[in-house]
Amino acid sequence: MPQASRSASQPELTALFSDVQQHFLKVIVPLWQGPGWNADMALPHEALDANHQPLPAQRYRAMACARQLYLFASLIGQVPAAEERAAALFRSLQRHFHDAEHGGWFYSIDPQGAPLDTRKDLYTHAFILFACAHFWDKVREPLVESVLNASLEVITQRFASGDGLYEASLDRDWSSLNSGPLQNPLMHLAEAFLATLSVREDLAVQQALVELCTAMQKRFIDLQQSVLMEKPLGAVDNWFEPGHQFEWYFLLESSDLLRGSALHASLERAFAFTEKLGVDQQTGAVCAMLDLGPGSGLRDATQRIWAQAEYLRALTLRADSEAVVLRQLRALQQRSLHVGGWYECRDEHGEVSRRDMPSTTPYHLATCYAGLAEYLR
């Protein structure tokens, strides 16, 4: 991984990161070991309120289970009982969400554990692959690798559309829903492919990843500004999201395989443009959505914690970035974290607009902090 050049380690940044990391380990992670854990279902609740009470259950998603599996797999050796929790989440993924009849995994189950949304969702399957790769790296159990292989098989055989891209959603029996490809699930598929390649040699996955990024460059990159759109070029009502730009940038820049690709070059060219339009230079806040073309500009000014985390992580791979990394880490701490957890969203005026804490958010903080730890190392 390339290291952004910086001056001698800055004590303020190191101390601030230590504070933020301790907040994660002592405040955020325990929320999902205690009040956020439904022991009867062996699943995380979808979200906690500001008082750490679970929101009334309406569904449980396989994607949320997989993100928490990644979280606790990443904490094995750091947090007591992390491996046991990861193992429980892995079992629940199979028990609750696996489709024994058609293969793959359901999108969601109802509060009683019955299949709810039975569609096959690429975003979900990408996170299952991602989580299993990380968990297998820690435990090296054959059953975990078999689920990793099963997720790879359904992704490459069922979702693939033959042009390097993948359908975003299919019906329970894998029949078409005419969803077409969408940026966000494809990004997480690239992330899952990279996670797989980080734990084993796999030429088929390597080829699929290169073909995916080649197709993303062709079908999703705006020719004028080089930003990555959320829908394929030419789609009606298209837009781009700064948070996803920064997330893609980190994946490409951190990969020896993808750095130097056409897609990487586009995201590199678009970085300053995305910062200019999508980041408030006063507060460091990253907005949610931007339009391009005539009348381009702000589409959704919501400031989501995951986008702040992805911008911060991307900055760790930029040259001469220490001052802005410090600024953004301070902004994350001051604007998004609090003594009881975190604020999920602020509105266009900077006011807290969501006080609930979803079980999916710690994944973004964990990957951001891993990037920061590597940067400081």
From TrEMBL:
<protein>
    <submittedName>
        <fullName>N-acylglucosamine 2-epimerase</fullName>
    </submittedName>
</protein>
<dbReference type="GO" id="GO:0005975">
    <property type="term" value="P:carbohydrate metabolic process"/>
</dbReference>
<dbReference type="GO" id="GO:0016853">
    <property type="term" value="F:isomerase activity"/>
</dbReference>
<dbReference type="Pfam" id="PF07221">
    <property type="entry name" value="GlcNAc_2-epim"/>
</dbReference>
<dbReference type="InterPro" id="IPR008928">
    <property type="entry name" value="6-hairpin_glycosidase_sf"/>
</dbReference>
<comment type="similarity">
    <text>Belongs to the N-acylglucosamine 2-epimerase family.</text>
</comment>
<dbReference type="InterPro" id="IPR010819">
    <property type="entry name" value="AGE/CE"/>
</dbReference>
<dbReference type="InterPro" id="IPR012341">
    <property type="entry name" value="6hp_glycosidase-like_sf"/>
</dbReference>
<keyword id="KW-0413">Isomerase</keyword>
